[in-house]
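Structural prep section.
Before we set up the soaks we want a predicted structure of the protein with arginine in place, mainly to decide which crystallisation condition to try first. Input record follows.
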Amino acid sequence: MPEKFSSEKPWGGRFNAPTDAFVEAFTASVGFDRRLYAHDIQGSIAHARMLARQGVLGREDAERIEAGLEAIRKRIEAGEFPWSVGLEDVHMNIEAALTAEIGELGKRLHTGRSRNDQVATDIRLWLRDEIGTIRAGIRRLQGALVDLAEAEADTVMPGFTHLQTAQPVTFGHHLLAWFEMLERDHERLGDCRRRLNVMPLGAAALAGTSFPIDRAYTAELLGFDRPAENSLDAVSDRDFAIEFLAAAAILMMHLSRFSEELVLWVSAQFGFVELADAFCTGSSIMPQKKNPDVPELIRGKSGRVFGHLFALLTLMKGQPLAYNKDNQEDKEPLFDTVDTLEGCLKVFADLIPTLRPDREAMRAAARRGYSTATDLADYLVRKGLPFRDAHEAVGRAVAYAIAQGRDLEALSVEELRRFSDLIETDVFAVLTLEGSVAARDHLGGTAPNQVRAAVARARRRMGGESA
Ligand code: ARG
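Run finished without errors. Recording the tokens verbatim:
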């Protein structure tokens, strides 16, 4: 029997030769999964308490393990923890440190558990917290939008379809459309959290454990709704991560759309709003430039989050049950997505209250595009004309106005009557921008008083539940 080499690795017993140095670094995850340390310790403490309650560990032993883990937590938070690539991942680093801290007893913590159920538990605990932070970030952005919508309830701007001026809308109404998109994101993440909140611990490596564990108790300690039903599924399931990334991708798609509108609106061609200097940068060559970098960057960052969703779908699609090392690749996409979302939500919520709308420019733009043509058609319908005929008549009136280089409301009654003799002087009330928006006075419509009512409802909806 050759002399046994000494390995620091908890799994070194079966091995006769040390790991290749490059392979060691290649397979290690501690460089990034150390981020899970707090949740790893949280899970370990609950596991130790459960083992003690079940008589698998002595009570005092469990208490010493807990104290040791708390000491390690402090050392990590003080930046004094010696992370070792040789110890592969966050789990083995902490376990080895525990044994160094409290002696041989540290080695008993891993009874009835495996890194496979441990890591699946850690990610769920961590993501659950991050979802809470992201949902609070969504609420903060929604609050900023609602405040601005209230202030701009009467501000008229052009509404677009095909990016062509369509009908006048109020700026407040437009901002509340953003609010609704975010409301669905908030809900989706809440839904994701509900399905995530199931505990893998107890599945051990894949088949469960021969120790008399009480999974319901551990689940209760960790705030999980219940233990996962099937041990094979528990260690291999990453659906919750994919669901989260899908919800994140949709949220980023929304933030990207808002950003695109801001980029358009701040351009000289639109001139609808001005961004505060604090959210822009200049050009090193063109002295006049004030670039909307923040919205542009958010629009750009949507790409990496979409990519992460695809990365995880692809990661999972070929995996047989149960745990495979492939799963170690689930963490970086999740970490980057969480950082991206939290950053984008924060900067957007900070930016919104600093927006300076140019009400005159919005109004002028709404007038330029014959945006009240539909109102004229509706007017003719109310006077008895079928809508299709009204559409035709107004179309000809618009062509005439374009040829004249004038707005519809600048035409005289005599000129307008060339297109329909149903037109009388009362037509001007419907051709004004204010008349047009005020007329859309029903739930979901753009009328200023509907915007104010929607603002009040939005505030109630946000207050109705905690993030
Ligand atoms: N670092 C691993 C991961 O992220 C932990 C689980 C390792 N389990 C194993 N049997 N190698 O997935």
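Observations: The domain at 367-461 is CATH 1.10.40.30 (Ribonucleotide Reductase Protein R1; domain 1).
Flagged for discussion at group meeting.
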